[in-house]
Amino acid sequence: MARVSQEHLDARRRQILDGAALCFARNGFHATSMQDVLKEVDLSAGAVYRYFSGKEALIAAIVGEVLGQVRDRFEEAARSSPPPPPDALVASVLSRVLTTKESLTVEGQPAFPRLVIQVWTETLRNDELADLLREGYGAVRQAWGRIVEAYQDAGMMRSDVSPDHVARTMMAAAMGFLAQQALFGPAPSDVLRDGLRALMSVQDHGSVNLLETRSN
Asked: What is the pLDDT confidence band of residue 175, given thresholds at 50, 70 and 90?
C-alpha cells in the first residue's frame, strides 16, 4: 500500500476544517450535523473521523487554530524593540487573519466574522470550548501586556496605566470590529487602524477634570 504523504494529510485536514467552518458559519453549531459537514467536504465518514472524533472536536480545532494565529503574531510583535504602534499592529493582525480566511464565504459575505459570533455564543453552553477560549484569550492578553510594557519602556505610552487594562481595551477593539463585520457587513482593517490612530491622537487638556466638575 502506498504511503500517504504528510502534505496530503495536511491538505485533507485543511479541507475538512474549512468545510466545517462554512457549515457552522452558515447555520450555527446546533443546526449543523456531521452529515452536513460530510456533504460539504464530499468525503466519507471514515475519512473525516480519521482526523476528528466529531463536531465538538472540529469546533475546538477551528477555535484553537485561529487563536494560535493571533497569539503568534502578537508574540512576534512583543519581541520587537519597540513593537509597532497599536493602530498598525491590531489592523495588521486582523488583516492577516481575515486574508487567510477570505476564501470562506457565505452568501457572498466573509464567513469568518459570522463564525466568531457563533463561537462566542457556543461558549455559553459548552464548558470545554469556554475553557479553550479563555486559555487562548489569556495567552493573547499576556502577549499584549508585554507589548504595552515595551511601549512604556520606550516612552511611547504613558506609564501610569496598567498594561493589562490596555491589553483588554485593544482586544475589545479587535473583537468589536469583528462583531461589526458579522452584523453590518465587511470593512477593511484600515477602518480600525484609522479609528485607533485618531483616538490615539487625542490630547488631554484637562477635559477629564472638566467632565468630573460638570457631573458634580
From this structure: very high
Q: Count how many Cα atoms sit within 13 Å of the Cα of residue 201 in the half-sphere of its side chain.
A: 7
For residue 57, give the H/E element and its range.
helix 55-78
Q: How far, rounded to the nearest angstrom, does the alpha carbon of residue 7 sit from its chain's CA centroid?
A: 26
Q: Which of 153, 143, 150, 154 is nearest to 90 (CA)?
A: 143
pLDDT in tens, 101-155: 888 888 888 888 888 888 888 888 889 889 989 998 999 899 999 999 999 999 9
Rounded to 5°, the CA angle 192-205-209 comes to: 100
- The 8-class DSSP code of residue 206 comes to S
Handedness of CA 52, 53, 59, 60 (dihedral sign): negative
Report the phi/psi class of residue 206: left, alpha or beta, with left for phi > 0 and alpha for psi in -120 to 50: left
Q: Model-level pTM greater than 0.85?
A: no
The dihedrals phi and psi of 170, each to the nearest 5 degrees, come to: -65, -35
Distance CA 161, CA 157 (A): 9
> What phi and psi values does residue 154 have, to the nearest 5 degrees?
-85, 0
